[in-house]
């Protein structure tokens, strides 16, 4: 094994510093393609330190934001992660396109509402994402009050909300929404009616771990798929009635309180799947 002298090593380093950077000389289209293949958005942002050519190149890369909170009750860890989300959003606001924004596993309490407000505002007003997932875990039955302005969004295509209270005070405008998933919520007939009437292009609806709803009336020709999982109601005299003349596919899963589906109410139904758990 040959051992290089310090002088020779120094000479090699100097030569290396003056070597031409072939990657930076590639066309923008190729560099953007390379950056688009990097799975971690944070790593894409960090390429800005590689040189002048890279300083603003990353901003043109479609970049999704994913916040997956660590499952811990440690307050310091939670606050550190919350702080890191603000830093990431600060940089991401310079991106030309952010197609998806997801938040998962956040243990929500009312004292954290300002952070969730910021995420929702960023997703709907700044990034104008097409896909938004707000997956909150409820602590002591505390749920997040979904803001009124977020019910007016013509760019959203896929929306998933968990442990969010939905009380639209006026009409809903989710013109391009095609898929809606709502979970861990107390729904009212009025709220559901406004949501469905304000989502004319909705094709798929999933309701998971919900209560309160007594009548699910779907008149849209496009909404043909509905999945209901874990519908519960403490009052035995209250049930959920489904009226959907254009519904083609229905799934009812897990432990559910009484659901009434008359044949005349679903005349277009092609497939119906029932996988239920019975608690005697």
UniProtKB/TrEMBL annotation:
Transmembrane segments: none annotated. Pfam families: F-box, LRR_At1g61320_AtMIF1. Residues 23-62 form the F-box domain. Residues 108-260 form the At1g61320/AtMIF1 LRR domain. PANTHER family: CYCLIN-LIKE F-BOX (PTHR32212), F-BOX DOMAIN, LEUCINE-RICH REPEAT DOMAIN, L DOMAIN-CONTAINING PROTEIN (PTHR32212:SF454). This is Putative F-box/LRR-repeat protein 25-like.
